[in-house]
Request: fold
Amino acid sequence: MIHNSLFKKYGLEAYYHPFHVKKETLAETIHAMKLLNIAGFNVTVPHKERIIPYLDEIDDLAKMIGAVNTVKNESGKLIGYNTDGIGFVESLKELDNEFINKRIVIIGAGGAARAIYFSLASAGVKCLDIANRTENNALKIIHAYPLNIETNCLTLNQLEQSLHHYDIIIQTTSVGMEPNDHQSLIEFSKLQINTLVIDIIYKPAVTKFLKNAEMNGARIDNGLTMLYNQAAYAFQIWTGIFPDVSKGITT
Ligand code: ATR
Reply:
């Protein structure tokens, strides 16, 4: 709906269509995209990492993140990009334009956490910690980032005890997503009033995690702004136009 309404808005003769692609047919699907001369496409879970070997070129940020969510077909050459992280940074700017100087913690260490960590670190955030169930997965993200930034790894219990240290808390795991919307990874009793708490899930619109945070005085936001902004950057890669996604789009 986002892309089709943007094509209409900008008078472009194009159509965006979802395809369900199984792991076993990923290679043939990509080959078909080339054969049919599809101008570009998005890639989502669970193919963001495994698509990389099938592409002809990967842009530097996507290479560093190790995942691709946007592909452009340039005269038969498929080029992979990642707009998740920059989409998130753009949405964070709208919520707190001083975010660079804030103390931020990311919960989770999967693909989304990695994209967000790299993009926030590249944007200049200095205090950026990771809280995750498995410490080793958090360490992998920190070690893969090429510049030296100070990051502490915490367990989820340690995070619960030190919530008051953070200005911004970002939940990046799929815990709490429909149909498991009764789940929330942490309790918020030690939260500072007015902490910004973001959950990148948008189904349900308000996760149990966000509800609990709000009840403890947080400002909250879900993943819809990130969804719009990653789409805006993908649209720009395909068409050269950076669209205004804030108005006139219904999802
Ligand atoms: P992505 O799609 O971004 O790769 P995901 O696969 O939904 O993300 O989630 C991966 C992250 O969610 C991991 O950090 C994982 O923790 P581990 O590194 O310990 O595996 C975290 N995660 C998933 N389910 C979880 C659960 N039930 N409790 C705590 N963390 C969980």
User: Anything to note?
Assistant: Strands lie at 40-42, 57-58, 70-74, 77-81, 103-107, 127-131, 153-154, 168-171, 196-199, 219-221.
